[in-house]
Amino acid sequence: MSTMNKKIPMRLCIGCGEMKSKKELMRILHTPEDTFVLDVTGKKNGRGAYLCKSEECLKRAIKSKGLERSFKMSIPKEVYAALEEEFINIEAE
Length: 93
What we know:
Hypothetical Cytosolic Protein, Chain: A; two-stranded antiparallel ribbon; about 25% strand
């Protein structure tokens, strides 16, 4: 009998484009209420995009319009500002 290795879920960072394990990444969520939030647990309902836990990747994603491509919609500047704010708060913890 062989022991089963548990498969690690891999996701693509929309900032740097690297494949990393789900645990290393943060999830940005587009909720059914049409809002965008950082999903720290990774379990909330809605369409998600993944991002490294670095401000650099967030800036890259904004510049390359990674979120727009992931969610197939245009994203207001206020959303990016709010995400940056949340990101800073999480990094500070």
